[in-house]
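Backbone shape codes
____________________
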Amino acid sequence: MCGIVGMVGKSSVRYDLYDALTVLQHRGQDAAGIVTCEGDKLHLRKHNGLVSDVFRQSHMNSLLGNMGIGHVRYPTAGTSSTAEAQPMYVNSPYGICLAHNGNLTNDDELNEDLFRTDRRHINTNSDTEVLLNVFAHELQQIAALQPSPENIFEAITRVHDRAIGAYAVVALITGHGIVGFRDPHGIRPILFGQRETPLGMEYMIASESAALHVLGFDVIDDIAPGEAVYIQSNGKVHRKQCAAKVIYSPCIFEHVYLARPDSVIDGISVYKARLKMGDKLADKILKARPNHDIDVVIPIPDTSCTSALPMAHRLNVKYREGLVKNRYIGRTFIMPGQQLRKKSVRRKLSTIDLEFRGKNVLLVDDSIIRGTTSKQIVQMARDAGANKVYLASAAPPVRYPNVYGIDMPAAEEFVAHEQSIEQIAQYIGVDWLVYQDLSDLIECASGINPRIDRFDTSIFDGDYVTDGIDASYLARIRSLRNDGAKARSNENDAALMELHNQV
């Protein structure tokens, strides 16, 4: 899960790109980057940290040009080192910068092909660099001195033929334009819009519609699975379907947790989907416990607030925000490493004791992944004086690894792994635990887009929408990306940084 943005404007785009990245900050807090194009010259700034920390005024002053792309990173493949911050650049052909959201599942094979057949060297462990070089190689094979839209679309067709996995991409071709494209399953979101200015029409590509709306852009459309949109530097827009076979399969977890509630993804309102999740979950509670003794519904902020409100209404009990969030602590789920996540929970949340004292409390969360955060929050509720603590999850149990760009590589790290609901409840320490049914979740997220064939629900049912996800692949990513591997990687990064500082 990362955030991407690209823009072709009539004047400087640096502040619009910066503002768009702040809107998309929830999609990645590890690193941020912007590259702009001024004629045939590129200007790049990227580093580890939040958008507001990475870009100082001196950096913004150097980001000249009417065209550019940006990225906020949340690491799944690779490490948290600055070398793997995006956008990434390759010189040949033309000079191409690329940023992407997702995860390639055949990056090892592509890396080998790039080295042995395409004669290209990959310098990092990032699958983004692999994807960039595949695109650059294919474009170099077919394009002339000036790449035509058809050249670019043909190169993307060849990328689709080679790459497997999830990828929503923005790429900048120096002096020519910006292209956005999406994998043939449309797993990760990407859309584009336009804004009328006195100087003419401007265009933006972004991960979520909220980034467009905040900056005054009107959404034109989602980029369809397998489709590419090429916006030339002069503002001319070209679209083409570049994949031979398309199965529209967006990730359902975008609606559960990842996306902002004010975004519309694949024609479906995230806010409305979450409202429906609350209704469905309340119906399940009423069916299982028609004479429930719940006194109050309290959401675990922020994502679950939208679902908790209709739950309280349907259950005919009070809705109270008894947990207060520190807005200056990032999303604990996307922090790299379990120890860091555990330390952040009590820094992030505090209780309003009067909303808990002597009451039977139903806590509502968007999902339960590792369970350690939930366990700490339940204990906080008991410490605040709750009589009984119940917990409802707006999503089903997470039992399987995610391979499409969400940091869930090892099933053994999930609280629901090979555990019954009763065992999970006992571990978390609640008096009763209820999960959303998968069929209800799919119904909530379905919306009114008839083009969607199915959702990627692999973290709940183990049904992966792309080929090649077998036991050996899952074992490999588990060994490379589990919390232990991340801890070792972060230690190595810290040691290298200390050595660099000493030198």
About this structure: The first strand starts at residue 3 and ends at 8. The chain has two domains: 3-246, 274-448. DSSP finds 17 helices and 22 strands in the chain.
